[in-house]
Write a structure and sequence with these properties.
The protein contains 19 helices and 19 strands. The chain has helices at 87-97, 103-119, 137-150, 165-168, 172-175, 178-184, 192-204, 227-240, 252-262, 266-272, 290-298, 307-312, 320-325, 345-357, 369-384, 416-423, 450-467, 469-490, 496-500; strands at 12-15, 18-21, 24-34, 37-43, 53-56, 60-64, 66-71, 122-127, 153-156, 159-160, 213-219, 243-248, 280-284, 302-305, 329-332, 400-404, 429-434, 437-441, 444-445. The strands form two sheets. Strands 1, 2, 3, 4, 5, 6, 16, 17, 18 and 19 form a ten-stranded mixed beta sheet that branches. Strands 7, 8, 9, 10, 11, 12, 13, 14 and 15 form a nine-stranded parallel beta sheet that branches. A hairpin with a 2-residue loop joins strand 3 and strand 4 (37-43). Bound molecules: zinc ion. Residues 70, 72, 128, 247, 283, 335 line the site of zinc ion.
Length: 504
């Protein structure tokens, strides 16, 4: 049969494969799909309805599509543009790296990421797209259309703020000489009320099919948003029943600045503002202490754990086991291609496990491979607010990745879950199905002309670089000051036990 033209209403029997359901290896079972939903998982040779199309999955290991709980679609046209970047340098570089003006730039950037994720076994993501100074309906529609066209699920949340990096970090603006204070002044953002009204209009007019792409609210970093703005974001998320996602305690600079600004941790502060609830996702959480984790857990919140980015930007190693112990819903993400520098969820799984091991020599304190896989499927799905993805089980969407059991990474198949979490690198991916439809077949992405995408991306990058030379020069002037100021702030020793991660 030709599955690419398969009628989704016709039952689809996937026969002869080995199946992993989230963290459990089910062995050899067949899977029946109808209308894009898994309707049965049963013994090999289980009866199938008359007229069912058959997919031969022999020599295939099936796992639920991985779910990327934190990425930034706008960053893909700026992939790997900074080498020794801290988070603060990355934020300062945004005006020359990803200052998009056209919907095509936004669409192409999002398409690159969607294509990469699907080819690497990821079928859904939480995308914190950026549209500064204000989110636009056209821009968000372009990003939503990109995901729909490529064929993956996404939650899209335009990042919003009402303070720049220079206003958010106490003392930073004063550390700049007057001519640089003048140079960064034009970056200042509109009053938060204007941003909220734009976001409200986007949510109000959202007409997409929410089974594939849905919106969410993302006050980007608490320090970059006035309290009233954070509260308004919370109210908007409640009013429209969408997720809310922010970067929380990502760098030590943020953690220290939070205590200076609020007199308490960032987490304690936003808990007081009423932000914490089950639809709340905190990205990173490297500098959470035990009290912070208990607060997040008690409110049923999620943390999107981005171990590769945390190391790449010098932010540290988050305590994923501590998060699980506190009852936090642990999700896993890649973060952006400007700070990882790929969107390979298999690599994120590996780093999530290895980073936990790197925290100390007691293996009883290490996250297990099944816990990591569960976090990257069921946990991330919950963070996205998609409650019926992330498993190969009846009632769940047929978002399924088919790995080649003759790929070297899986030879021999000794420990399927451990091999997937610690060993797989994406080279075993043969086919990827989303909602019962193949979008990757025989290692080829069916929905995107990649050479044409590469060509257009290169043209757009050249155009962006040509119009952003002033922003690049401003960054070059500011960067040495950030490289002095921020590490010095991060060396703050008060509360050292609180911040070092070694004690509560
Ligand atoms: Zn991020």
């Amino acid at each position: 049969m030709n599955e690419e033209s398969h009628d989704p209403r016709r039952p689809l029997a996937i026969q002869g494969g080995l199946v992993l359901d989230a963290s459990d290896f089910l062995g050899g079972v067949d899977v029946l799909v109808q209308d894009g939903i898994i309707v049965a998982v049963g013994a090999r040779g289980m009866p199938v309805p008359d007229g069912a199309a058959v997919v031969d999955a022999s020599r295939r290991l099936l796992h639920p599509g991985l779910v990327n709980a934190h990425t930034h679609g706008h960053a893909n046209l700026a992939r790997s543009m900074g080498d020794r970047f801290t988070l603060e340098l990355l934020l300062a570089a945004a005006p020359h790296m990803s200052p998009y003006v056209s919907v095509e730039e936004k669409r192409v950037s999002a398409t690159i990421g969607a294509a990469e994720m699907l080819l690497k076994g990821c079928t859904a993501c939480y995308d914190l797209f950026v549209e500064f100074p204000l989110p636009t309906e056209d821009g968000i529609a372009a990003v939503a259309a990109a995901y729909a066209q490529v064929g993956m699920r996404a939650v899209i949340a335009p990042m919003m703020a009402d303070m720049t990096l220079y206003e958010a970090i106490p003392g930073l603006m004063e550390a700049l000489p007057p001519h640089l204070q003048t140079a960064v002044a034009p970056l200042s953002l509109p009053p938060w009320q204007e941003t909220i009204e734009r976001m409200r209009a986007i949510l109000h007019s959202w007409h997409g099919d929410r089974t594939m792409v849905r919106p969410a609210v993302a006050p980007t970093i608490p320090l970059h948003c006035r309290d009233e703005f954070m509260v308004a974001c919370r109210d908007l998320a409640v009013e429209y029943d969408v997720g809310i996602h922010t970067h929380l305690a990502e760098s030590k600079v943020q953690a220290v600045a939070g205590v200076r600004r609020y007199g308490r941790s960032l987490t304690a502060h936003i808990e007081q503002l009423g932000l914490l609830e089950p639809r709340f996702v905190a990205a990173h959480g490297v500098w959470l202490d035990g009290d912070d984790m208990r607060l997040l857990g008690a409110h049923g919140a999620s943390v999107a754990h981005n171990p590769a980015s945390n190391m790449r930007l010098g932010n540290g190693v988050a305590d994923a086991m501590g998060m699980l112990a506190a009852g936090i819903n642990l999700a896993i993400g890649t973060d952006a291609t400007t700070c990882n520098d790929n969107l390979n969820m298999y690599q994120a799984l590996h780093f999530a496990a290895a980073a936990s091991h790197a925290r100390g020599p007691d293996p009883a304190q290490w996250i297990t491979a099944p816990q990591v896989l569960s976090a990257a499927t069921v946990g991330s799905a919950r963070a996205l607010g998609f409650d019926r993805i992330g498993r190969i089980a009846p009632g769940y969407a047929a978002d399924i990745v088919f790995l080649d059991l003759d790929a070297p990474t899986l030879i021999p198949l000794n420990a399927p879950v451990t091999q997937l979490v610690l060993g797989e690198d994406g080279t075993s991916v043969v086919d990827v199905m989303v909602g019962g439809r193949f979008v990757v077949r025989q290692r080829r992405l069916l929905t995107v002309d990649l050479p044409a995408l590469a060509s257009r991306a290169a043209e757009l990058r050249a155009e962006i670089d040509a119009r952003c030379t002033d922003s690049l020069h401003r960054f070059d002037a500011v960067a040495p000051i950030l490289c002095d100021f921020c590490p010095a702030l991060a060396r703050t020793e008060w509360h050292i036990n609180r911040w070092c991660g070694c004690s509560d």
